[in-house]
């Protein structure tokens, strides 16, 4: 239940269209709904501005489908399922026709009521093409949350002229998400060029001494550029969500 639905519920009670007992039954679902295998947080949109997002890894296809089915029954407009495989996507497409699935980002989106976009832009910048799966997770997350996203991919520090050729676009964004593996130097370079928040996303892309993204994570945490904040390894969703919050302030 979102704020608009809650207002409608209260107005229905006030105008006599809904009995108090029926309203109480609806309000009992507000904190969460016990589905047996999951507790669906039906209160999150009221608290945080966006409903609960489904993390599919570790869940069965049937569990994800049951959660989405209930969210659709509760009239959720925008549903986001991250780390979803093709089996999950097919199960969701059987529930509703308007499912968009990105094989690159492994994200399934049900966007029945697109949110209004603020004037600002979020720039998603990657060091290499190999960082695209994490970058797309960030970009799609930001888009479904009502943001204009500019993608600037494969502009890493191994060819710095590529990054500099897009400098005007990057500097004009309200927030920059810098996605990079290997040594993760992109975030420091971007942070030294712009006067906007930079959200650094280390990826697990790299050779053995990269330690599955740990080297990039430590490099970004030790950035000498001011204004750089870091999310966890491969956490494109977290970066997209945070960038959306900043862009909507």
UniProtKB/TrEMBL annotation:
Sequence ranges assigned to domain PurE in this UniProt record: 120-249
User: Organism's domain of life?
Assistant: Bacteria
* InterPro entries with a match to the protein in the record: P2CMN_synthase_LarB, PurE_dom
Q: What are the coiled-coil residue ranges?
A: none
GO MF terms held by the record = hydrolase activity
Q: Which SMART domains match?
A: AIRC
Write out the GO biological process terms.
Answer: 'de novo' IMP biosynthetic process
User: Protein name, please?
Assistant: 1-(5-phosphoribosyl)-5-amino-4-imidazole-carboxylate (AIR) carboxylase
Specify the species.
Mahella australiensis (strain DSM 15567 / CIP 107919 / 50-1 BON)
Identify the taxonomic lineage of the organism of origin.
Answer: Bacteria, Bacillati, Bacillota, Clostridia, Thermoanaerobacterales
């Amino acid at each position: 239940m979102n704020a608009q639905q809650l207002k409608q519920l209260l107005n229905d009670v006030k105008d006599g269209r809904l009995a108090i007992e029926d309203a109480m039954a609806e309000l009992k679902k507000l904190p969460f709904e016990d589905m047996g295998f999951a507790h669906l947080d039906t209160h999150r949109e009221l608290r945080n501005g966006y409903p609960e997002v489904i993390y599919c890894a570790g869940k069965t296809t049937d569990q994800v489908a049951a959660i989405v089915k209930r969210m659709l029954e509760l009239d959720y407009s925008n549903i986001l399922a991250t780390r979803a495989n093709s089996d999950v996507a097919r199960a969701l497409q059987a529930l509703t026709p308007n499912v968009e699935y990105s094989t690159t980002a492994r994200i399934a989106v049900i966007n029945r009521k697109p949110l209004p976009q603020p004037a600002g832009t979020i720039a998603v910048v990657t060091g290499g093409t190999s960082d695209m799966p994490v970058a797309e997770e960030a970009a799609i997350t930001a888009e479904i949350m009502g943001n204009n996203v500019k993608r600037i991919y494969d502009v890493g520090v191994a060819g710095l002229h590529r990054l500099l050729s897009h400098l005007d676009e990057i500097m004009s964004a309200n927030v920059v998400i810098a996605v990079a593996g290997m040594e993760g130097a992109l975030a420091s370079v971007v942070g030294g060029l712009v006067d906007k928040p930079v959200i650094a996303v280390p990826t697990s892309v790299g050779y053995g001494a990269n330690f599955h993204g740990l080297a990039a994570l430590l490099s970004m945490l030790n950035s000498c550029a001011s204004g750089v904040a870091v999310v966890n390894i491969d956490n494109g969703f977290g970066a997209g969500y945070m960038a959306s919050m900043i862009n909507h302030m």
